[in-house]
Amino acid sequence: MRLRNVSPDDVDAYVQMRCDPVMMADLGGPQPREEMAAKVRRDAEQAAADLAWFKMILPDPATPEVVAGTVTLWSHNTNDGPISEIGWMVLPQFQGQGLGKRAVRALLDQARDENRWGVVHAFPATSNAASNGICRSVGFRFVSETDMTFAGRIFKTNHWSLNPRTDLT
Ligand SMILES: CC(C)(COP(=O)(O)OP(=O)(O)OC[C@H]1O[C@@H](n2cnc3c(N)ncnc32)[C@H](O)[C@@H]1OP(=O)(O)O)[C@@H](O)C(=O)NCCC(=O)NCCS
Description:
By secondary structure, this protein is of the alpha+beta class. It has helices at residues 11-18, 36-48, 99-113, 129-138; strands at 2-5, 53-58, 69-78, 81-90, 120-122, 141-150, 153-162.
């Protein structure tokens, strides 16, 4: 497994992930296909400027054209002030092989090594067993159940947090 920055050429992978109703069931529903090129471009610019970490997951470095998913770490404002948040997606044909967990762990290792981002938060849907499994097995601590608004809808999520300097298992 290897991580690399998203590039403007990753439109197909974004479409497979973000325009798919099953992949997006816990993330506000599928997004319009015609918006993906601009979204990839914005993410690639932010990644290149090191403003946020938008990483593509490559299952096998020997075949770098094969992308299994994404893992993202970014900072944003909330009513309680700015927080660092991590999110992830793994395409169906690559799920259940430990790739999501290894990718999340690799990005958190990088955060620890660069002493960046502070405490990292995650908000998987309460019903998303695999995402909550990632949080549990990487070393996140459960904070509380929290209602989150995505795309105008309210979702029940589990709030998890982790300090990469002290909590990685
Ligand atoms: C959630 C998702 C990223 C998981 O990726 P994955 O590569 O399949 O997960 P992994 O194989 O790394 O498994 C991670 C952990 O969860 C557990 N797990 C995986 N699938 C599970 C399931 N369906 N039910 C219960 N636990 C599960 C694994 O056993 C593992 O824990 P362990 O290390 O203690 O054994 C992937 O299913 C996905 O992208 N889903 C659609 C989009 C999405 O929901 N994104 C996240 C929104 S918060």
